[in-house]
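Give me the 3D structure for UPF0354 protein RYX45_12365.
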Amino acid sequence: MELREFRKMVEEKLERDDRSITYNHKESTLRITNSKTNKGVTLSLKPLLAKWEREEYDSIDEVIRYIEVGLATMDKRPSLKGNENKIFPVIRSTSFPDETKDGIPLLFEEHTAETRVYYAIDLGEAYTLIDEEMVRESGLPAEKIREMSRFNLRSLPQPMKEDVVAGNTFYFLRAKDGYDASRVLDPSLLEKMAKKVTGQLAVAIPHQDVLIMADIQNDSGYDVLAQIALQFFGEGRVPVTALPFMYEDGELEPTFILAQKKPKQP
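Predicted structure for UPF0354 protein RYX45_12365 (266 residues):
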């Protein structure tokens, strides 16, 4: 389907008297704004169309439902008090905004040279990033919120699929709960994988909805990981980084992979 046709379908489904819809030709994005609150969401149409063509959505109505959930979330102001078990960490790139559209600083911390950790309160079909105003209203110390988010993260399932390519084993964690990439913040998971692999443990966080780990046994493994990370990065709804990481001594080190320059495995 052509982008223009897809855009027309989306616009027709989203039209309402209390909304304004503007299209950015250069960026191929739609901005849907609530006329009463002046809040809205920006849709990047190209990756959304790609996901629809790969049949990750059953129909255009499911695409619209995803968008409507995001719009409805904009009008909610959830409280952290009483919802402590719904607080989770989320991974974002370092280029991600550090404040809301209204200029309120978001609660976050640095993670690696490529990533940051933000915090969210789960609303069911979506979540809202926690800002400093929400922290003040809750009366909870920021450090306590971080601790609770890590505790809640450890309670989530860790479903993984394996694939072996050229003697290297790749593990894909996709729970489809919005916190797939966040599992990289669980040190027990990384340590478990470090003990499981027999080669070099590598990690990729291409977008928020997947965590990739790999048991690298040879030079081909580095090449395959780089290609997978780049492909997933381009397809993600919320891209994080196409740069893989090497995991050693409890640390993640971003690595620009040139397989021919990697030392051969013993």
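Helices lie at 3-14, 45-53, 60-74, 132-138, 142-154, 187-196, 219-235. Let me know if you want a second pass.
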